[in-house]
Amino acid sequence: MNARARSRRALLKTASALGPAAILGVGSLISSPVRAQTPLKWANLTPGFTTLLTDYMLARQLTKANGLALGKPTSYTAVSTYYNDFVAGNYDVCIGSWDTFASRYLAGVPLQYVCSVTTGNMINIVTRAQAVQKFQDLQGKTLAAPQSTGTYRMMRAIMQEIDGIDLEKVATVQNVDNPAASVTLVMANRADAGLTWEPNVSMGLERVPDMRVLYSAGVAFRRKLKLDLPYFGVAVRKEALARDPGLASRLNQAFQQSIQGITTQTEEAIKIAGAQSGTSPQVLKTAIDSRRLEFKHASMQTEEGRRSILVANEFLKRSGALPAVVDKEFFAS
Q: Does domain 42-120+229-330 have CATH number 3.40.190.10?
């Protein structure tokens, strides 16, 4: 065999090992799927907006494109069970409120925070009671709220520091299992007000003509600190990261791409995930158009992303909603 033939044979062998993407010079994760690593489990909350993210990612094959071995997510209806199963290690990737992850991390749960995906504009107190015209009127009234959630603690802290009102001292708080139940009780006149988040807010506004937003956590926080209040984000178990050191970066990119798709092709995203969300397409569209459901990606691999959490963490620490400020190991950076 002459030198030219040997060289050609070696080139073909190398090209075969690298695969077609390397031969063509394709570097994009979308156009050239990364080989999936260890299988991962994830979950979503129904009814709720998290299905927009998970279903859009699967439909557009963003998981496969980013080398994420994620199949159909497990759906939960009870918020407490959703978080408890993540804490117990029953699944690897969780979409939830950043302060819930922070409180679990501070308590020793092995997790890291990858990115934020929405702002606190989602968190609202709604009412239909004529006696509750402003949030100060909650004195002596009944407030339905999912008390096991970080959302409840966040709202309580914001109202306490910004407006000097402690929800548990002015109102009778009635615990519910999920944010949809808060709205249901207000609709049935079994609670004067309800703490909930989108798309449940828009669902209530659509069904009951006299329902209205009484207080917005995101608006109050921005008014006080001139910053967006981070809200839902993505956390991953440390053991999953240990198995696959590049996992955090690929998860971050997949969620960034999902948010970009949802915000630029909203109607298409709603068609893909609307049926699974437990919410009508019109309600989801209303929630997004109103900017109460505001998708905004913030990577913890950037200083700006980490700062958004640390500022909010300091705020919640002062109010007693969180016992301490997370250290750098909280961030999957």
A: yes
* pLDDT confidence tier of residue 72, bands split at 50, 70 and 90: very high
| Cα 52 from Cα 293, distance rounded (Å) | 11
Q: Is the pLDDT of residue 93 over 60?
A: yes
CB-based contact 44:58 (threshold 8 Å): no
**Domain 123-225: top CATH class:** alpha beta
Q: Encode burial over 129-161: b for 16+ CB neighbours within 10 A, e otherwise.
A: beebeebebbeebbbbbbbbbbbbbbbbbbbbb
How far apart are alpha carbons 297 and 116 in whole angstroms? 6
State both tokens at 9: 């044979």
Calculate the CA 329 to chain-centre distance. 20
User: Alpha helices, DSSP H only, in 121-237?
Assistant: 150-163, 167-170, 179-187, 200-207, 217-225
Summarize pLDDT for 211-241 with one digit per residue, the tens: 999 999 999 999 998 889 999 999 999 999 9
Residue 279 has what pLDDT? 78
42-120+229-330 and 123-225 share one fold? yes
- DSSP tag of 54: H
Across the chain, mean pLDDT equals 87
Phi, psi (5° rounding) for residue 236?
-135, 145
Contact indicator for 94, 45 with CB cutoff of 8 Å: no
Asked whether the predicted pLDDT for residue 23 surpasses 50, the reply is: no
The model carries a pTM of 0.81
Supply the pLDDT for residue 150: 81
Query: 123 pairs with which residues across the strands?
Result: 197
Give domain limits for the chain: 42-120+229-330, 123-225
